[in-house]
Amino acid sequence: DSNEIDSLAQFAVDQHNTKENALLELVKVVKAEEQVVSGKLHHLTLEVMDAGKKKIYEAKIWVKPWLNNFKELQEFRHIEDGNCDCLFYAIGRRRYYCIVCVRYESDEKAAGGEWESVGLEDPAVQDAARHAIKTIQQRSNSLLPYELSEVLHASVQVVDSSAKFDMFLKLKRGEKEEKVTVEVHRSEEGNFILAKMEDHH
């Protein structure tokens, strides 16, 4: 049940914030597994915002539903780059993107720095597209919000742990549709920057 998982994720963040006097904000649940013990032990991988920076945490929550809905946060730890059981999505023929620690790897056979086409529904592409729209909205004087209609084309260039996304996007603003070409850079730390934008009227 996704509502239960979301509720447990928020519980974990709230418990951590109270205990450590922190101000983490839950963004989303990246991964959820459960282990049957005396009750259930939920292993959650969470994306949170910490002072404006995106970070990944692992939480373990022990639940005993029959005992007045007993819940206990057993563990809550920050996942550093290179210290996670990486879940890789392919982005291009020999490029991989970890949805947990949000890092990139290249197959040793791949020549670094090549631009390669990438799946339009790839989570890395969708993240980059969302950032582009957010920045376009911030730079615009329009009161109408921009919405992503479709990613029409996307290429990625991976160098070490950073990446550049070249994307052709179809946007919607009210009843009006617009098409733009954008180049979004993603740093090793996971920060996105809209480097270039070109309108196609």
What does this structure look like?
This is Cysteine proteinase inhibitor. It comes from Genlisea aurea. Keywords: Protease inhibitor, Thiol protease inhibitor. The chain is of the alpha+beta class. Helix content is 18%, strand content 52%. The protein folds into two domains: 2-78, Nuclear Transport Factor 2, Chain: A (Roll), CATH 3.10.450.10; 116-200, Roll (Nuclear Transport Factor 2, Chain: A). The protein contains two helices and twelve strands; from the N terminus they run αββββββββαββββ. It has a five-stranded antiparallel sheet with strand order 8-9-10-11-12. It has a four-stranded antiparallel sheet with strand order 1-2-3-4. It has a three-stranded antiparallel sheet with strand order 5-6-7, with no helix packed on it. The longest helix has 19 residues, at 2-20. A hairpin with a 5-residue loop joins β11 (176-186) and β12.
Note the main attributes of this structure.
Nuclear Transport Factor 2, Chain: A, Cystatin_sf, cysteine-type endopeptidase inhibitor activity, alpha+beta, 5-stranded antiparallel sheet, 4-stranded antiparallel sheet, 12 strands
